[in-house]
Amino acid sequence: MGSDGYVPLFETKKVKGRVIYRLFSVSIFVGIRLILVYRFKCIPREGEDGRWVWIGLFAAELWFSLFWVCTQALRWNRVYRYEDDLPKVDIFVCTADPMIEPPMMVINTVLSVLAYDYPTQKLSVYLSDDAGSEITFYALLEASHFAKEWIPYCKKFRVEPRSPEAYFLSISDPNDVKETKEFVAIKKLYEDMENQIGRAAKLGRLSGEQQSKHKGFSQWDSYSSIRDHDTILQILVDGRDPNARDIEGRSLPTLVYLAQEKRPQHPHNFKAGAMNALIRVYEKISNGQIIHNVDCDMYSNDSQSVRDALCFFMDEEKGQEVAFVQFSEGFKNVTKNEIYGSSFRVGMEVEFHGLDGNGGPLYIGTGCFHRRDTLCGRKFDKECTNRWYMKNDPRSEVSLQELEAKSKVLASCTYEENTQWGKEASLFLTFSNTGLKYGCPVEDVITGLSIQCKGWKSVYFNPETKAFIGVAPITLPQTLVQHKRWAEGNFLILLSKYSPAWYALGKISFGLQLGYCHYSFWAPSCFATLYFSIVPSLYLLKGTPLFPQSSSLWFVPFAYVISAKYSYSLAEFLWSGGTILGWWNEQRIWLYKRTSSYLFGFIDAILKSAGFSDQAFVITAKVADEDVSE
Ligand SMILES: O=c1ccn([C@@H]2O[C@H](COP(=O)(O)OP(=O)(O)O[C@H]3O[C@H](CO)[C@@H](O)[C@H](O)[C@H]3O)[C@@H](O)[C@H]2O)c(=O)[nH]1
Ligand SMILES: [Mn+2]
């Protein structure tokens, strides 16, 4: 790192002691020359004994000298490259309810990102737990022990994916892996952990013995309920600690548990509030230049994703304008024909690429990498370079206890009052100035839009093998509830200060504006849909014609538009990897969504804007009964 704090992607260092080596090399060279001179001068005369042997030796020595000169080319100018000046990457995982989001699922996600193929001293993982659940904390503690075996195992055997659950599921027969012995051992360890956590989750509380495993449990002494508790912050693994090592003696990524303070009289702002608390806390602890956000239900399916994302940020030509890199998402629990059409297939394979062509995709909350400054409200200007300025380690010279105490206040629910994190009133919604925006059920989309309006670009990356795999809602009510939240949120953005229709005018490309409007228009499109599905059929009964007769020439455009539009949509769906039945289901669900989710989303958005209703966030269920799955 230079004195200006500039951190290159890699560093080139000339080998130490070069001058000494070269002097040494020259001395040998002189020595060799003298040997050759001796040979040449003292050749036995013709007829003398051993003349030919001598000449042969001379030739051999000449050859060796030449060879030696060549070997010097390999040593004269050695440079060593180091990538340990890669930027620090901090990963935020969010969870909110141990019943809906089981601790085992949460720690599988955490373990998958802990085991990224990236220098561990540059990696920190933060788990935000909006439930402040002791069991989730216990699970994370167990995971931190398991990680000591899991990370070296993954790296040694190049395991993919690195979510233990997904990995063990992918291997049906232990004899399929080369290292059967190690496999069986690590699987046993995982299952032991699973049993322990499962037992605690089932009981709903921890035994005294389990609680005695870590001093952090004492923080629950003052805990009264999910909505009423103190900040809980625990640095489970401190990357600086020389004793925090995996079983092979290598350092471990920093691992932090945080539950922001909650009081009934203070809104906690859901995921946006949790992310903002994390942003403040992480600045004190690791303060990396890249923030990577995943939901607890979405594990990393590719250990190279951090490096992939960095390629975009660090590109010499375009990298400096990239604020975030959004990866595509895959879903492990949708059936082949997607009964509830919840895989967002066409969105991922077509629409987001369209957005990318217009200045960049939306931020969709998970599988995303952010340049930290942009999340904190920095504007793009010509000064922004893709140089990575690394502030000094914020932790230096502070003890773990002090660090925890100092960071803890930053997650209190009154911290934001009268700070730049405070609220900024707008026509309909309130937003935080810094960090993620509050007051909108799609905090991710509105935050992404506000970043793009500050002049930044985003990048969409959709690798062949999905880099992030999560769970989609798998019952009809869950699907409708999720889409109600999204329709409402996107419609609220249209009404908000950051409206893609007017605020964004001139700030982002016209195409991107239209793209955002498309999602904002989901909710209001319920009316046209309802009208179309009810009125024509009623009039059909009355006998009043609303469409041209098939004999009329006017019939042609109707027939053309309808058939062409549907054929294209089917083709697009198949091309995106779907099935015919899947497309049919999507059409069916489309009608359900438009006539229910979008309508309720619209009504709620209006009520909220008028101040009649409070914000809520209905978390999507992640576990299903066996019969539902079937
Ligand atoms: O009070 C809350 C509520 C939710 N979450 C977390 O938010 C994430 C998303 O919740 P989920 O119920 O899974 O919603 P989805 O509809 O699947 O999520 C998508 O849509 C949300 C916005 O509606 C975004 O926040 C998500 O990142 C995005 O994946 C989960 O990790 C939750 O733990 C919190 O941290 N605090
Ligand atoms: Mn989810």
Automatic annotation (TrEMBL):
Signal peptide: none annotated. Its main location: membrane. The keyword Nucleotide-binding does not apply. It is a multi-pass membrane protein. InterPro entries: Cellulose_synth, Nucleotide-diphossugar_trans. The chain crosses the membrane at residues 20-40, 52-69. The keyword Transmembrane helix applies. Keywords: Cell wall biogenesis/degradation, Glycosyltransferase, Membrane, Transferase, Transmembrane, Transmembrane helix. It is found in: Endomembrane system. SUPFAM superfamilies: Nucleotide-diphospho-sugar transferases. Gene3D superfamilies: Spore Coat Polysaccharide Biosynthesis Protein SpsA, Chain A. This is Cellulose synthase-like protein E1.
